[in-house]
């Protein structure tokens, strides 16, 4: 089968490689010529995805995978088109469909009869049926259900481990009718393999959700759940700080029985998914007050962490503060919705002089993002750990001379290395190596 993959990003490119590894002819289309050139050279355009480099080189050399910037070259002749163009939100948290609209219009201009079109980008409920179907029909002159099939099948993988996740999790599909669902199931069964999962209610594999809307909601629900859970954990953490107890012990105790699954609190929730998908859900369900409250609670955590530092130091004006971690999470060179933006903004608003360090980013890349690079060994007054890079597990005061306070927003640093220095963790009940506050003003 010939397959076209639209957008060769951190999800789309591994998917294209996976399909090629199953023996299919795959053409990837991307508007970024640098990405196209890298793929055609068998070179991964971004680092950090396990096994991608080797697989990509093999499939390009075999002739099963190539890339182009031309929809006219990629779409005609494809029996399946998989769309993985990112959907972003605007300043008012509304879905911004500009890039997806452009990609959909471009593929619709070249789609042929008998083609299956599958959207894997996370979407607000109703988008596949209400937006993509009429757009494709209008531009192509074809009729969905008769001339082509349209399904929604959300990606459910994490960058850095895409190939393992493709095997581990059921592949959800939702069609606009039964024929489309059958076509979607047949396609995905031909391009994916699945691990045995005795913990699942039914066999791991392609799961038909019954309609596109159910599949759209499933992806939004599973990710929004995480945001709400983290929001609850962050509220527990802030309360624990007020009354002087360690929320980590509380959470470990709660999760020792099977009905509690409390996530871990932290300085920020970042990435393409968890901060964004609750907003997509809210765009069609504005009455979801719990979702809205959790999103607000999580968005407030960078300011909370900075305020803790300000309280301990008696002010931040003129102080030198090193923020460790530009990435939104450890081991991933990506700043999408990273907490670093709000942490730096909050520090600057309080008059601090801020430097940013990240082992995955060069000084030039840090500067290009608008920050002063920080280098270990430079004098600082305070340190804030924003990303849980493994490198930060081993740092100590000798790496950050002069530091009077460490705010570990990810609980990744070694307390033993910081003995004698004030150290704060989110939900730690107060600064470590300082007297634990005793609260007597709790109403009973």
- Apparent shape: globular
The count of DSSP E runs of length 2 or more, i.e. the number of strands, is: 16
How much of the residues is beta strand, in percent?
Answer: 5-15%
What is the mean predicted local confidence, pLDDT? 95
Record the strand order, biggest sheet: 3-2-1-4-7-8-9-10
Global structural class: alpha/beta
- Give the termini distance in whole angstroms: 68 Å
Share of residues in helices: 25-40%
Largest beta-sheet details: 8 strands, mixed
**How many alpha or pi helices?**
15
Global Rg: 24 Å
- Uncertain ranges: 433-444
Record the SSE blueprint:
Blueprint: E1 2-6, H1 12-21, E2 25-29, H2 33-40, H3 52-62, E3 65-68, H4 71-74, E4 80-83, E5 88-89, E6 95-96, H5 98-108, E7 115-119, H6 127-140, E8 148-152, H7 162-168, E9 171-175, H8 178-191, E10 206-208, H9 212-243, H10 247-254, H11 277-284, H12 289-299, H13 301-313, E11 320-324, H14 340-349, E12 353-357, H15 363-368, E13 372-373, E14 382-385, E15 405-408, E16 422-425
Parallel strand pairs: 1-2, 1-4, 2-3, 4-7, 7-8, 9-10, 11-12, 11-14, 12-13, 14-15, 15-16
Antiparallel strand pairs: 5-6, 8-9
Helix pairs in contact: 1-3, 5-6, 9-11, 9-12, 13-14
Provide a quick synopsis of the model.
With about 450 residues, the chain is an alpha/beta fold.
Describe the structure.
This protein has 444 residues and is an alpha/beta fold. The chain is 38% helix and 14% strand. A hairpin with a 5-residue loop joins strand 5 (88-89) and strand 6 (95-96). The model is unreliable at 433-444 (pLDDT under 50).
């Amino acid at each position: 089968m010939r397959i076209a993959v639209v957008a060769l990003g951190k999800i789309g490119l591994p998917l294209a490689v996976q399909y090629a590894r199953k023996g299919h002819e795959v053409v990837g289309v991307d508007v970024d010529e640098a990405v196209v050139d890298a793929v055609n050279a068998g070179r991964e355009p971004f680092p950090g995805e396990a096994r991608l480099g080797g697989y990509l080189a093999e499939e390009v050399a075999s002739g099963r995978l190539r890339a182009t910037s031309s929809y006219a070259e990629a779409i005609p002749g494809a029996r399946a088109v998989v769309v993985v163009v990112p959907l972003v939100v605007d300043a008012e948290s509304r879905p911004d469909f500009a890039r997806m609209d452009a990609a959909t219009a471009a593929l619709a201009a070249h789609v042929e009869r008998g083609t299956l079109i599958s959207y894997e980008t996370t979407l607000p409920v109703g988008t596949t049926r209400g937006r993509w179907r009429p757009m494709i029909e209008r531009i192509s002159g074809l009729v969905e259900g008769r001339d082509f099939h349209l399904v929604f099948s959300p990606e459910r993988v994490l960058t850095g481990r895409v190939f393992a996740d493709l095997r581990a999790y059921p592949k959800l599909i939702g069609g606009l009718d039964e024929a489309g669902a059958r076509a979607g199931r047949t396609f995905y069964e031909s391009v994916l393999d699945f691990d045995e999962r005795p913990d699942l209610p039914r066999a791991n594999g392609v799961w038909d959700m019954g309609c596109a809307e159910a599949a759209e909601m499933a992806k939004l629900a599973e990710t929004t759940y995480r945001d709400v859970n983290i929001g609850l954990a962050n509220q527990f953490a802030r309360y624990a700080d007020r009354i002087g107890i360690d929320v980590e012990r509380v959470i470990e105790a709660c999760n020792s029985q099977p009905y509690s699954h409390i996530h871990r609190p932290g300085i920020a929730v970042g990435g393409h998914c968890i901060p964004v998908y609750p907003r997509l859900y809210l765009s069609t369900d504005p009455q979801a007050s719990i979702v809205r409250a959790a999103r607000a609670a999580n968005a407030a955590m960078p300011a909370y962490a900075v305020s803790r530092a300000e309280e301990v130091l008696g002010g931040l004006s003129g102080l030198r503060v090193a923020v460790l971690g530009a990435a939104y999470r450890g081991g991933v060179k990506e700043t999408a919705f990273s907490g670093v933006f709000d942490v730096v903004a909050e520090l600057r608003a309080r008059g601090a002089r801020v430097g940013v360090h990240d082992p995955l980013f060069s000084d030039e890349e840090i500067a290009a993002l608008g920050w002063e690079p920080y280098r270990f060994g430079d004098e600082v007054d305070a340190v804030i750990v924003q990303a849980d890079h493994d490198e930060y597990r081993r740092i100590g005061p000798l790496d950050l001379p002069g530091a009077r306070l460490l705010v570990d927003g990810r609980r990744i640093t070694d307390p033993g290395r910081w003995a004698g220095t004030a150290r704060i963790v989110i939900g730690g009940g107060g600064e470590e190596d300082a007297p634990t506050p005793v609260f007597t003003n709790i109403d009973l």
